Amino acid sequence: GNNIPSVNEEDTLADVLHDISSKRLGMTCVVTKTNVIRGVITDGDVRRYFEEKREVHLDHVKAKDLMSISPKTTTADVLAADAVHVMQDTLPKVMHLPVIDAERRVVGVIHLHEIVKAGIANV
Predict the structure, then answer these.
(1) Among candidates 26, 5, 24, 12, which has minimal Cα distance to 107?
(2) Which has more confidence, 82 or 63?
(3) The pLDDT of residue 119 is above 70
(4) Cα–Cα distance between 82 and 123 in angstroms, integer?
């Protein structure tokens, strides 16, 4: 629902930063109007973007400029322990996995720290 971090491709940098900060996961999903995943933006993606493009007008930066396309995802029927393996086997390693349905709509997000906190996996 509304607790899933998500923005649209045309949302501004301010929208992206607000969503990342307010949802407290260190990331947000970039979705279409029908909630289909297009990409992911992490706080690290934002930092790397500005390290690379030092002379950019902040007002012109959109979510589509910051997002990583084709993010790793999982589905609701996958065990959390298996999701951890996906996170660890991905290079670079990921801390979050969007959970999608059969139509690639975002239905949740798994965060590695929450899995460890729940005692499901030791990382």
Answers:
(1) 5
(2) 63
(3) yes
(4) 13
